[in-house]
Amino acid sequence: MHRLLKRQLKKSNLTSEVIDAIGPLLEQVDAAYNSFDNDIEHVETILEKSSQELFQVNLQLKNNVETISSQLNKVVSNIQEIIFEIDLDGNWSYLNPAWEKLTGYKVEDSLGKPFYNFLKEVDGKSPKSLYHLEYTEDHTVQRIFKIVNNDNTIKWFDCAIKIIHNQLGETEGFIGTIVDVTSLKSAEEKLLAANRNANKANKAKNEFLSTMSHEIRTPLNAVIGFSNLLLLDDPKPEQVENINALKYSSEHLLALVNDILDFSKIDAGSLELEHTDFCLDHIINGIQSIFQNKAKEKNILFFVERNGNIPRICKGDSTRLSQIITNLVNNAIKFTEKGKVSLQINHLRETDKSIALEFKVIDTGIGIPENQIKKIFESFAQANSDTTRKYGGTGLGLAICKRLLELMETELQVESIVNHGSIFSFKLQLEKSDNINIENQIYTNDVASLKLLKGKKVLVAEDNKMNIIVIRKFLERWEMNFDIAINGKIALEKACKTNYDIILMDLQMPIMNGFDATVAIRQSNCYNNQDKPIYALSASAWIDIKNELEQFGLDGLISKPFNPSELYLILTKILAEGDIFNAS
User: Fold this and answer.
1) Is the bond preceding residue 114 a cis peptide, omega within 30 degrees?
2) Does domain 82-180 have CATH number 3.30.450.20?
3) Residue 553, by phi and psi: left (phi above 0), alpha (psi -120 to 50) or beta?
4) Continuous H helices in 139-181
5) 428 alpha-carbon distance from chain centroid
6) What pLDDT sits at residue 123?
7) What is the mean pLDDT of each run of 10 residues along the chain (584 residues)?
8) Exposure string (b/e) for 354-380, b if CB count within 10 Å is 16 or more?
9) Distance (Å, rounded) from C-alpha 323 to C-alpha 379?
10) pLDDT (0 to 100) of residue 583
11) Would you say 316 and 275 are in contact if contact means Cβ atoms under 8 Å apart?
């Protein structure tokens, strides 16, 4: 029997007869005790094994934690950026070894002390704003500081700091990183300095080109003016050719100067497009008038085609649109020895507010080899050197057209077949205008027979002797009454003594320049000249001085060198209609 059963029977004092009688029951109890012992033994065995396995797992986990901690320490120790923790009192509670490398302070000497005792900005202040955070939505702030280190070296630190919350959402400290961005800031400062130097050099270049343009255009005004005067004075047949050559050469030089100046402005990004009402007919009629004679001289045809409903008045930059078309037509006539050149304006589509037009210049000229088409749009480049020698030019015309059209958010297209001709085209979206008061310009070269300005009184402020002679001769030819002032001070004195219909004001003069003289006249109370049209008569470009013209009260610009026919028509329009007329 099982020991427990024996013990229980002994305590019960049962007789042998009773024991024998309950023998089968006792056998079952005995079997149950033995089975229970076996179960207990099995459970103990399992617990022992589980305990041993748990011990091994715990030991392995401890080793893994030590390994991970060791590796993490190695990683943290080798990180170049500072990793830190700050408690609620602003004291360092953790710093990795990068702290010593970047600041020169020892970690053990820094822990438990306020962070702002160690980080000092160049002005001597401490970046306490890191501690008094203006929390963002994600409770993270990033700032850059210029810090003086322990060894008095100056470094730029990029600090990112984040709030640490406990399980209840309460702030219990801060954690963050500090990155040394000194080299980046140094590179940035060098880049900014280089950019400033580049801008300074660009400005100097633009000022030089503008000054040179003015200085070249001023004597050109005299050359072109005198050549026009000579042609009007009924020269001898043998003189006409020489005078025409002089006129053509001076106008060609002027075109080159303008191209170089314009390209410089586009290249520097300083050229701004106008957005004003203009008459498209003015541009087309002017181009037709100018180039019909030029084509006739080469015994070729030039004509204009308008296809569809072409508007008279649009909004945009008329000066630059005219410049693009003029360049394209001039090139077409230059490179066409026989046949014809045409300018097509095609209506493409329109809406209530805008209209899309296509401009095509078609010629029967020498054409361009396919492998040279890209080259012709490069600065100072033509298809080949033979072209340059034969036809001349700087190679800037098409480059300027291409850049201007890109500013207008379109592009110049070209199709060409060698010895058959070329087609240059571009599409342009123009805004419609409600202005219906812009009249068509009348173009004529016979200004000597016109008497519309007879008796009109004009004051001309001009200090260049040759230009004075030129404009005086034209004003005499037009039978105008005029006074000449060689500086702004004299112009002001004359304006206070005489009533003028118009004042033409050179801008660069000694003693008092044209800007100051205009302001003084506008502020005076003599002879109502303060309300009369005052136009700049200058070799400066309209774009260069547009803001100054408006600021100093000038009504517009008449550019030098001027074509006498254009000057006559400009003066006629200003005096006849009293309109502010942009004559640039």
Assistant:
1) no
2) yes
3) left
4) none
5) 22
6) 66
7) 80 80 84 84 85 84 74 65 86 88 87 84 64 54 77 83 83 86 87 86 74 74 80 78 74 73 72 83 83 88 92 87 90 92 94 93 91 75 49 67 91 92 94 71 45 87 89 89 94 90 90 92 77 83 72 86 77 66 38
8) ebebbbbbbbbbbbbeeebeeebbeee
9) 17
10) 40
11) yes
CA atoms of 416 and 504, how far apart (whole Å): 47
Fold of the 276-432 domain: Heat Shock Protein 90 (3.30.565)
Long-range contact pairs involving 370-373 (C-beta distance under 8 Å, separation at least 24):
370/416, 373/414, 373/416
Distance of CA 493 to the CA centre of its chain: 45
- Residue 203 makes CB contacts below 8 A (sequence gap 6+) with none
Q: How does DSSP assign 220-282, residue by residue?
A: HHHHHHHHHHHHHT---HHHHHHHHHHHHHHHHHHHHHHHHHHHHHHHHT------EEEEHHH
- From start to end of 321-456, where are the E strands? 340-350, 354-363, 413-417, 421-432
Burial class (CB in 10 A: 0-12, 13-18, 19+), 253: middle
Confidence (pLDDT) at 474: 87
pLDDT for the residue numbered 3: 82
Amino acid (1-letter code) at residue 75: V
Half-sphere exposure of 410 (CA within 13 A, CB side): 17
pLDDT of the residue at 457: 92
| Cβ(176)–Cβ(127) below 8 Å | no
Rg (CA), the chain: 46
8 A C-beta contact, residue 142 and residue 176: no
CATH superfamily ID and name for 189-239+444-584:
Response regulator (3.40.50.2300)
* Inter-residue contact 499 to 459 (CB < 8 Å): no
Encoded tokens for 201: 């050099």
Q: What is the pTM of this model?
A: 0.53
Nearest to 98 by CA among 115, 119, 75, 121: 75
Three-state secondary-structure class, residue 358: strand
Q: What is the pLDDT of residue 329?
A: 93
- How far, in Å, CA of 298 to CA of 339, rounded? 10
Q: Are 434 and 477 in contact, with CB atoms under 8 Å apart?
A: no
Say if residues 422 and 367 touch (Cβ distance below 8 Å): yes
- Written as six digits, the tokens of 341 are 């050149």
What is the C-alpha separation between 304 and 285, in angstroms, rounded?
Answer: 9
Task: Evaluate whether 213 touches 541 at the Cβ level (below 8 Å).
Answer: yes
**Residue 36, token pair as written in the block:** 């229970």
